[in-house]
Amino acid sequence: MTQLANSPKEHLLVHAERARERVKELKESPVPVIYVGCATCGRAAGALETIAGFEEVLKDNGIEARIEKVGCLGHCYAEPLVIIQNPGFPALLYQKIGAGEAGILVRSFLKDGSDPCYEYLIGALETDENFPTLMDYPRYLYENRVVMEHCGLIDPDEIDHYLAVGGYLSLAQGLEKGGEWVLEEVKSANLRGRGGAGFPAGRKWEIARKVEKTPKLVICNGDEGDPGAYMDRTLLESNPHQVLEGLALAALAVGAERALLYIRAEYPLAVEIMERAIVQARGKNLLGANILGSGFSLEVSVFKGSGAFVCGEETALIESLVGNRGMPQPRPPYPAVAGLDGLPTVINNVKTLSTVPTIIRHGHQWFRSIGTEESPGTAIFSVVGEVEYPGLVEVPMGVTLEHLVVDVCGGIKDGKELKAVQIGGPSGGCLPASLMETVIDFDSLKTVGAMMGSGGLVVMNEDTCMVEVARYFTDFTQGESCGNCTFCRIGTRHLRDILHSITIGEGKMEELTDLEEISEAVIKGSLCSLGKTAPNPVLTTLRFFRDEYIAHIEEKRCPAKMCRPLIAFYIDLEPCARGCDACVACCPTDAIFTTSNRKKAIDQEKCVKCGECVYACPPEYDAVRRVSPPEMIPDQGVEPLPDTEKEKEESK
Amino acid sequence: MLDQLLAALNETERAAVDEEEYQILQAVVDELPAFSHEVSQLIPILQEIQGKHGYLPRLALDMVADHVQTTIGKVYGIATFYNQFRFNPPGRNPIKVCLGTACHVKGGEILLENFERRLQIKVGETSDDREYSLERVACIGCCALAPAVVVGEKVEAYVTPSKVEGIITEIEVRNEMAAREQAKNDATSE
Amino acid sequence: MSDNLVTITVDDQKITAPVGSYLLPACLENDIYIPNLCFLEGMDDPPASCRLCLVDIEGEAVPVASCRYRIFAGMVVTTDSEEILKLRQLAFRLLVSTNDGSCRTCIANHGCELQKIAKFLHQPLKTKRLRHIDREYPELVDNHPFLVYEPKKCVLCGRCVHVCGQLEKGYKLDFANRGMDTIVSFFSSDSDPASHDCETCLACTEVCPVGALSSKVKWTSFVAELEMKSAQKHKGGQG
Lengths: 652, 190, 239
Ligand SMILES: Cc1cc2nc3c(=O)[nH]c(=O)nc-3n(C[C@H](O)[C@H](O)[C@H](O)COP(=O)(O)O)c2cc1C
Ligand code: SF4
Ligand code: SF4
Ligand code: SF4
Ligand code: SF4
Ligand code: SF4
Ligand code: FES
Ligand code: FES
Ligand code: FES
Known about the structure:
- The complex is a heterotrimer.
- Chain A is of the alpha/beta class.
- A 5-stranded mixed sheet of chain A has the order 2-1-3-4-5.
- In chain A, helix 20 packs antiparallel against helix 22.
- In chain A, 57% of the residues are buried.
- Chain B is an alpha+beta fold.
- Chain B folds into 2 domains: 2-81; 93-189, Glutaredoxin (3-Layer(aba) Sandwich), CATH 3.40.30.10.
- In chain B, strands 2-1-3-4 form a 4-stranded mixed sheet, with helices on one face.
- Chain B is globular and about 50 Å long.
- By secondary structure, chain C is of the alpha+beta class.
- In chain C, the strands form 3 sheets. Chain C has a 5-stranded mixed sheet with strand order 2-1-5-3-4, with helices on both faces. In chain C, strands 6-9 form a two-stranded antiparallel ribbon. Chain C has a two-stranded antiparallel ribbon with strand order 7-8.
- One FE2/S2 (inorganic) cluster (FES) is lined by residues 39, 41-42, 72, 74-76, 79, 230, 234, 391-392 of chain A.
């Protein structure tokens, strides 16, 4: 620290200064700026069409405006999301803006400058007396955005956007104070791995740091294989530089010279964005040789994972890196001691690494003031299913499930009853409504048989069958088993087969014991955590929803009326409207026919139980019924309309 | 190298390599030198080939094995281990039905059945005319719009069984219009 | 390293073995039988896949596979606790639940490891309680000039893949697919000169613990003999 003028921080401040200038220009732009959420989710919802819509209408009306692509805010229910910064107004967030709405916004808000289109408005980003602000909504109020702070607000393709909000400052600070200091900070913060198991990141780093072999390697695990979770992808796509900064800090703490981002190939946009981000960071000497003049060097590259869930497991991940089949290996040795090519290899989840810069920036005490003693910090969940506001939420650890589902995500849709939440993806468990007071942290969830896991959270109402949910997850894991060990390869297959037979009404009571026995053996006897956690959905549903299993087996009845072989649809002739044909048109198998009194009925032989007619039938008639078991269809004395009558009708 | 490989095939196998596949293989011969010969390049190479050509022809695997100096067994073992790789050409309109958790709960399976019924192909197959292929995928990240289906590049949100018909009809209409356009052009140019 | 002998306790018996070597072979050498299918002497990283060799080790929270657990001084091993026995029995039942074919017509009859383990674990060779899982495999793969593979008998132990890989021009067979679909595949044909090494080698057929992989010559004559016997019996029955 002899030459202060050339310290990493000074170097960085030069970049940051320039970045702030550029961003200021944008924020104080004399013409309107339109920010459109263009992460994968936004695109799926039509964000690119929205942009095209804006461009066209702007051009037609001769209005000058800037369009900026930003990442994802995590408010999936409201996509495509648009923020409009119109001079003279606060920045306003709009929801569900398709190409059509884009046109309306341009014409009424940008052209005439008068009408901010309240009908699409969520609120102003900052407090403002004329507009509701985001903080007026529980969803924003209760969330605590630490890791996702800038997601959806900055352009992931512009390193300056990140620099302008203090990006890479933590890295500069780390470079000045040294890897040992970074390690101590993260250890004191008690940052636990967000990839599932919750192993303390600092401890892992320390182990690798102490091993003498070099070169060491740090890997960011972005394989995200849980079939219902996407927060890692969102972080990679929305704030790539934060991930890179965390990765660089981890490398610094460990003493690694090489870092890898392992991202699944199904995430092409994330790969693209990360690759660009690496180039930009290297261009500013924030990665590469002699970073910010500190003497510390780090080469970062991207490896595309080929879509095997098991490769998220760290030893399998390493196998796939060397060009092998992704078969997990027994641990020890742990990768931190002997990983890729036998060298110390630290593997951390995207969320874990993204958290690191915030800890370095604000200090470990600050971090420990969030969350709980044993699980400090925040948890990010992708909440899907039957809640009012599904999406990505970041809440402090230690809140209850009830709070997350009801307060933050708006509770159950359509005034229905909450039945269960499945938390932790395929390795997690299903918790009943009675356990909604359970606190969200690594240890509490384990005590009730679930897991933080990947952070996938599915909220289910009375219409979801728990046996079917268990079957779904077991089907997934058995299909993703690498096939090495007997218990996992064959055991999970038996579990799935038994569950399947229960859902089609062919289960036997004694098979419930088999389910338990096999589950326990798979947990105890499997080699890796895929097998060791695969039975969790089975065991938790058996524990909390045994009555549903029994109903399927003994009464051939699916209480949620979801398992198709155990249900049937019929049309209640009473409310069915004569002459209405709504259901007929929707039926994919032409199963609906006209009765002799010109109402409708379902030919059970032809019906494939898709449930479409339930939705097609106009709510004022609401005549289609769903029953379980199928024998519950009442005898209404249905007669088809004779052919002669039909012809008469047609000729009319 | 390609000719050598072809020569090693028996007659039925050789006959199965059509013009299109031959072209692909020829291209692969040109693409391979861009990669180093390390085994760790295996997966990236396979990804590249599939990315460019849509699938992995069997002989391409042999060429890759040769390039990284490993056995065909190893290359085949890897290609069949990972979900990403496919061994037959995809349809012009690849349809991917999401069966991730959220979509499953909202009836993704029923959609898949509807596509199977409508297209007369099973999941994992390509129609004979190569117009459609049908796949299942796990979570495409629009769970809030479940159930979702990806048609070509486009994500269809809130798909219902009755929308399936519409999706296919739209493609058919588009094809028909293109064909008519083509015919008109041909007629005028004659 | 191999000279570095230490004493360990296995089921109250003291044995000495090289520190750092794998536990399973040490036990076997000392006549402590632990069922095993997928281990072979000389494997650097045994796949630890069959899970039949699970044992309890003091200090380990869960049972571990002895074939891939390295010996340390003073370790205390239990190979015959009730829990271990139950786990092994279930592993065995799972294995046979996917296997086809009857021993009577199998080329490995009387020499099959599964039969030996069945006896040791007091388990039948056919599943009763568990359903039979029919793996979607062909009955027979005989496109190799010198080898015959019966996938439905294969327990996927990987011994064949391992020994072939040890050879100079090895890996003529390897695993393909994943999970329940995993299968051993040959990668040579009549026209491939490499496969001619197999004619004199046959190493893989010798390590196969079951009747899944055989020399074509032996297999052909075995089948011929079977047919003859059944024809005779048939005749005898008629006469
Ligand atoms: C079957 C399986 C799949 C996994 N998938 C992932 C994944 O997609 N992403 C991830 O970060 N960790 C995954 N893990 C956990 C990793 O093995 C590893 O524990 C984690 O990446 C460590 O990072 P952390 O300490 O930051 O959590 C998976 C584990 C198993 C057993
Ligand atoms: S537990 Fe399953 S995924 Fe893990 S090694 Fe065993 S078979 Fe493979
Ligand atoms: S459930 Fe589906 S198949 Fe059956 S009658 Fe209704 S629309 Fe037709
Ligand atoms: S849509 Fe409803 S009201 Fe109309 S014919 Fe069908 S069942 Fe009757
Ligand atoms: S016979 Fe020898 S060379 Fe041929 S596959 Fe078997 S082990 Fe390999
Ligand atoms: S063929 Fe025999 S040796 Fe090879 S994996 Fe199968 S059972 Fe094991
Ligand atoms: S809004 Fe982007 S992930 Fe849902
Ligand atoms: S589950 Fe279908 S998009 Fe996520
Ligand atoms: S011999 Fe140890 S697991 Fe098979």
